[in-house]
Amino acid sequence: QVHNDAQVFGQATVYGYVKIYNYAIVCDDSKISGYVEIYDNAKIYGDTYVYDNAKVCGNAKIYGYAQISNESEIYGHAHICGDAKVLGNAVIRGYAHIYGHAGICGNAKVYGKSTVRNSAIVSEYAKIYDNCYISGHSQIRGFAKVHGSAIVTDYAKVYGHAEIYGDALINISSEIYDDMKVEGNTTICDG
Q1: How far is CA 157 from CA 28, 34, 45, 86, 188, in A?
Q2: Which end of the chain is more exposed for a tag (fewer CB within 10 A), N or C?
Q3: C-alpha span between 108 and 20 (Å, rounded)
């Protein structure tokens, strides 16, 4: 169902019980199915696939070869692009950018102006917020939190109830776990 001033055009395919309304746009080769809701000023384009019970709203943009599924919610000014995947009950909001084979899944939350890219994975109940940068095959999982202007990159792993914040830098295969906290201008390299 397409309502109000919403638009579907190009080679876009919409089927199932999808609802597209307000000023949302779905175009190019996008595929939308299931019980998906797309509304407000959301834009879905490229060769994307949005399915199951996902919601995309606000000024969110989904493009490239991105996949959004399950109960995921994308809103605010979030951008999901490239070959990124958002699955499970994940929530992406604010000005977050997810791209470059990144995966967000489980009950993970990414918001603020955070960036997740280059095959990084955020999963389970992990939270990424503020101005964080997660990259380079890194993994954030469990109940871990990364916030402030923290950077996690180069195969680093943060899990358990660990917390990384401030201007902390975690890289080169380092592992931060259990209840560890890394803060301020701390740099941890090579585990």
Answers
A1: 37, 34, 32, 19, 11
A2: N
A3: 25
Taking CA atoms, 15 is separated from 37, 51, 69, in Å, by 12, 10, 15
Token match 């380079």: residue?
A: 136
Tell me how far CA of residue 146 lies from CA of 38, 58, 62, 184, in angstroms.
Answer: 29, 25, 24, 12
Q: How many CB atoms lie within 10 A of CB 65?
A: 15
Q: How far is CA 14 from the centre of its chain?
A: 23
Alpha-carbon span 75 to 94, nearest angstrom: 7
pLDDT surpasses 80 at 26: yes
98-119 burial, b at 16+ Cβ within 10 Å, e below that, comes to bbbebbbbbebbbbbebbbbbb
Count, residues in the chain: 191
pTM of full prediction above 0.85: yes
Amino acid at 167: D
Summarize pLDDT for 2-24 with one digit per residue, the tens: 888 999 999 999 999 999 999 99
